[in-house]
């Protein structure tokens, strides 16, 4: 997979970036540096093409997810994270997954559906993909999630709540930030994510 890497400074957090639909490995870099100016960055480009836009798994229209592709791409992404972690000498459990929209959705799916040492996440505007095949305990996971309110044309309150509940039911430590700014990331939530990260 195509990646961008910056080792950052020795006291920085390890941020693993997953962009939204139409983004690429550079899309969340400024956001990562805003959250932690010293951070190490490992950022992936989604390999699925949809009308020239990069994504992390296929869909057949807005919110019509291709579940076969979701599972296949989740396995590929996890393998790529394992490989990059080894190459860069970073333990899997030391990454903080930082995803936006489609990238947040696959990141949350990895934590819910794969038994992996990955355990921390900042998820901007994710939604439930409605896949709940696993029951293993998530009490080692700490996640922060934001919701854009009823002006978000993509993520419904119901879908966001379903995702939050899926994590809470399995004992993850969950922090929710609700805004009213729609699907775009805004300053208020960035500040909240930054505070959460500082205290991690
Ligand atoms: C997006 O456009 O990124 C979606 O709303 C979320 C997804 O497709 O996973």
Automatic annotation (TrEMBL):
Keywords of this entry: Hydrolase
**First and last residue of the signal peptide:** none
Q: Does the keyword Hydrolase apply?
A: yes
Question: Is the keyword Hydrolase in the record?
Answer: yes
Which InterPro entries does the record cross-reference, listed alphabetically? Answer: AB_hydrolase_fold, PLipase/COase/thioEstase
Pfam families the record matches: Abhydrolase_2 (PF02230)
Which superkingdom heads the taxonomic lineage of this protein's source? Bacteria
Q: Which GO terms describe its molecular function?
A: hydrolase activity
List, for all copies, the residue spans of the domain called Phospholipase/carboxylesterase/thioesterase: 13-198
Please identify the protein, giving its name as recorded. Answer: Alpha/beta hydrolase
Q: Which organism is it from?
A: Candidatus Enterococcus moelleringii
């Amino acid at each position: 997979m195509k990646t961008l890497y910056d080792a950052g400074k020795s006291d920085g957090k390890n941020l693993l970036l997953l962009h939204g639909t139409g983004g690429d490995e550079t899309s969340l870099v400024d956001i990562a540096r805003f959250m932690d100016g010293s951070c190490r960055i490992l950022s992936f480009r989604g390999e699925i093409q949809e009308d020239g836009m990069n994504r992390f798994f296929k869909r057949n229209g807005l919110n019509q997810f291709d579940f076969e592709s979701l599972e296949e791409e989740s396995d590929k992404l996890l393998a790529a994270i394992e490989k990059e972690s080894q190459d860069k000498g970073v333990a899997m459990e030391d990454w903080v997954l930082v995803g936006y929209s489609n990238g947040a959705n696959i990141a949350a799916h990895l934590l819910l559906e794969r038994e992996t040492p990955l355990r921390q996440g900042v998820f901007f505007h994710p939604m439930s993909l409605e896949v709940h095949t696993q029951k293993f305990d998530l009490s080692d996971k700490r996640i922060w999630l934001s919701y854009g309110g009823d002006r978000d044309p993509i993520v419904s309150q119901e879908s966001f709540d379903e995702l939050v509940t899926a994590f809470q039911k399995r004992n993850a430590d969950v922090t929710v930030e609700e805004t009213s700014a729609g699907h775009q990331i805004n300053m208020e939530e960035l500040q909240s994510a930054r505070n959460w990260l500082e205290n991690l």
